[in-house]
Amino acid sequence: MSVNLLFSIDDGYVDQFKVTLYSVVKNCSQKDLAIYVLQPSVLEQSEAVTAYCKALGVSYHPIVVEDALFANAPTTDRYPKTIYYRLLAHEMLPDHLDKILYLDADILCLNDMMSLYQLDMTGMLYAAASHIEDNDMMDFINKKRLRNIEATSYFNSGVLLMNLEAIRQSVRAQDIFDYIDKHRTVLFLPDQDVLNGLYGHQTILIPEEIFNYDARYSLVYLMRSNREWDLDWVINHTVFLHFCGRDKPWKKDYRGRFSGLYKYVARKAGEV
Q1: Looking at the Swiss-Prot or TrEMBL record, what is one Pfam family this protein matches (predicted)?
Q2: Helix (H) or strand (E) run with residue 69 in it
Q3: Fewer beta carbons under 10 A from the terminal one: N or C of the chain?
Q4: Ordered DSSP codes for 1-16
């Protein structure tokens, strides 16, 4: 079985993409990986990325996004065309793909991801994790703000399993453009908000501590778990460690708990 992974990057995120990809390849039990990368134009480092993927033994499929796809899309400085890439990936990916896992390029894979990739998605469009699962008030506010009270929770879109067969039947570009036009004054994280507002009720909730551990909240996780989810637990159980927010581990001033772990993996990724 081929495993399909989706990324969306520009030239400013090539190095980080390599680190994420390296960590996935080294920890995935399935070695037949197909890597699809959405990009606004051909990457300046396209040859280097191709060579890197070849060295890791995975197939690389660059997809340059056509501006024509977003001819009717509402755009501003705050809502550039790139916000639509994830939401309309099904229109750019090959028709024969039935499933794909999207990953942000600020993620480390620490354990095998196949339990997520093989998740039964019958009747649902997406699978994702919430980062505010225990905050009922914030959850309610987001549901009201985005006009989708039926949604299970407010989902983070940095790890997003896509049921492409179902999405092709249900997700329409014009619906997304209309939603943004109607709700633009209340959208804080545009693409993520749209996903929640339109399709939150068709998204499977997956455990964040396993599949989308937010590195900013390590102390919160520790307290929530009665001190069970410590560093050893994360290394042994968490699949995707996500460095959300502006503070990133490749920056010199980063002092987060997982700084050394990221820098170690980045060094190993650079040796490929």
Answers
A1: Glyco_transf_8
A2: none
A3: N
A4: -PEEEEEE--GGGHHH
